[in-house]
Amino acid sequence: MQQVYRLTRQIASTTATVLLLGETGTGKELVARALHELSPRATGPFIRVNCGALSESLLESELFGHVRGAFTSANESRTGRFEAAHGGTIFLDEINSMSYILQVKLLRVLQEQEFERVGDTKTIRVDCRIVAATNRDLLDEIDAGTFREDLYYRLNVIPIYLPALHMRPEDIPDLVEFFAKKYATNNNRAAPKIASDLISMLQAYSWPGNVRELQNYMERATVLCTDDVLTLSLFPPHVRGLAPIRLGRSKFGGLSTTCSEFVTLGIMESGEESEDVHQRIVSLVERELILQVLRTCQGTQTKAALRLGINRNTLHKKITDYGLESEAR
Length: 329
Fold this sequence. Notes:
This protein has helices at residues 2-12, 28-37, 56-64, 81-84, 100-112, 138-143, 149-155, 172-186, 198-204, 210-224, 255-264, 274-296, 301-308, 312-321; strands spanning 18-21, 46-50, 89-93, 114-116, 123-125, 129-134, 158-161, 193-194, 229-230. By secondary structure, the chain is α/β, with parallel strands linked by helices. The protein has a five-stranded parallel sheet with strand order 2-3-6-1-7. Helix 5 (100-112) crosses helix 7, helix 11 (255-264) packs across helix 12 (274-296) and helix 12 (274-296) packs across helix 13 (301-308). The longest helix has 23 residues, at 274-296. The protein is globular, with a radius of gyration of 24 Å.
């Protein structure tokens, strides 16, 4: 992270295009904003566009604008995000989601700093710095034929890689303290103390959602804290090494019978309620099964869902619930 900070400061004053690389939740937008605020363009606009949130036609209009009558619902002309970013910085998040056709238009903007609105022939020139971000390996996308190689090299002038949180557990104590103070202030409370065993447990967790996940759980813990000490009990079960809480999911591909047998074989000696024990075992077995199938299918969710007999959306939710993002693609 010190290298990230140094490089960010070093290149902020330049006009070079920057490509931010890293998993979801590692702070790519924060670095993009820092590049803008530390640059001579700081007084200009900072425009963010999530390329993965819009369809091809909507994204084209969003980026380049359109004239009245360009398409059915174009009742009036509209300025695009590139025009709005003139004199400032435009941040293109999830650049890997952009269609092949739009990639051609973006390449022209990068090379010539000009474009036409949708439905217009008038060329518009802009002066804005482009910062792009992706959580995918663009070289893999190039091999798959979904990303242009010439655009990749045009974007990859200065790459900045943001490491995952599990790669830098020594940062967790500072992040915990920062978020605890932030959310205590937001809720008009005194900043809580941190329990002695909390940090070591948080450092042992894999954090598939990275800093954003830690931030969300710190907000939750700070809000739920009723005394002056932040303890591990305020965090979700899976962060504490337990199975995630599942509601109404007692059956999964025949696992219900197996787990019921575990319960009848003496698991009740722990003193827990039958339903709680049953649910915990179901979750543990379900997680292990999904993990093994994902590894067998080399992380391909479509194949894994087919083998498990569930639809892909259901599998995606289970992967998130069980913190298996690192095993999936």
